[in-house]
Amino acid sequence: MTGIKWIVTDMDGTLLDSRDHILDETFSCLMKCQRAGIRLILASGRSYARLMPYAEQLEMKKYGGVLIEVNGMAVNSLTDGVRTVYARLGQKDRDRLFAFIKEREAEIQCYEDEAVYYWIPERIMEIKRRERARLGIPDSFQWISGTWSFVAEESYTYPIVKQVYSLEEMPKILNKLNCTDDPDSISRICRELEEEFGRAYEYTRTSPRLIEIAPAGITKGQALKKYMKSEGICPEEVVAFGDGENDVDLFSQVRWSVAMGNGADYVKERAAFVTADNNHNGIGEFLKTLPGMEKILGD
User: Fold this and answer.
1) Which residues contact 23 (CB under 8 A, 6 or more apart)?
2) Last residue of a domain, which of 215, 248, 266?
3) Which residues contact 6 (CB under 8 A, 6 or more apart)?
């Protein structure tokens, strides 16, 4: 029998393929693991609202599944309904971060559990107008930027998605605040954020054109560490998959840390193993190599 008790996986670029779907092979693998008593944990920058469709697809509530939400802001046990929130950004954080990023003319996205509010400077609006016209995107489609471009890859799945035009329209308490722009601008803004605010926040580049800002100490890895301690789980009993910078701290908490083939070199260098990419069942292919998994997964 395998010694693995938990499987922890990032979402975008890891569990999900390039179309935001779970591959059939990956789904089958994870369902077999859950039926064998292995707990599945989704660890993501996404909020509860954007994780639950996948959790329901995987029947995680039935099998004791857990969500690590918003890069470690909260841990949500689906079976018993216990949700532990560790920290959020307060009004003071919102005010000074908004002012700092607005001055640099980057897009600002503020997140609650079931809502995202976004502010777009005119410079970026001009880029969006040109890009949307080129792609034939209708005006009814949301103006918020996506992870990889100035146009969202798909319609956001939050119940509330609202464009705002002033700080006063933003919520006072936030799960996280995102800053998005072209890659060169994001590199510069990230450096300037660290110079201005130091270690008051966690700054994570989840893609070349996106920074996610959270309270200090809020990471996927720290949330997993606390949850492992509360459940009496050892690092040798956990396998963790990821592809982004926000997965590196996750890797440091477990014995079986696995970078996806599509991950950045920085991420691969900090993982114990590298597997196939997210479009080629990287999760399932690695799980098959673990001792005892052949009895669970079969051929």
Assistant:
1) 17, 279, 281, 284
2) 215
3) 38, 39, 40, 41, 228, 233, 237, 238, 239
How many other CB atoms are there within 10 angstroms of residue 81's CB atom?
A: 8
Q: Provide block-wise average pLDDT over 10 residues at a time, the chain (299 residues).
A: 90 94 98 97 93 97 98 96 97 98 98 95 95 87 88 73 96 97 97 97 90 96 98 98 94 98 95 98 97 87
Predicted TM-score of the model (pTM): 0.91
Half-sphere exposure of 68 (CA within 13 A, CB side): 29
Q: How crowded is residue 263: how many other Cβ atoms within 10 Å of its Cβ?
A: 28
The string of DSSP letters for 259-287 reads E-TTS-HHHHHTSSEE---TTTTHHHHHH
**Which domain CATH number covers 158?**
3.30.1240.10
Distances 63 to 30, 135, 140, 276 between C-alpha atoms, Å: 11, 42, 39, 26
Which of 196, 215, 234 represents a domain boundary (last residue)?
A: 215
User: Do 135 and 193 share a structural domain?
Assistant: yes
1 in any annotated domain: no
Three-class DSSP category at 213: strand
- Note down the domain range covering 188: 91-215
Structurally, the chain folds into a number of domains equal to: 2
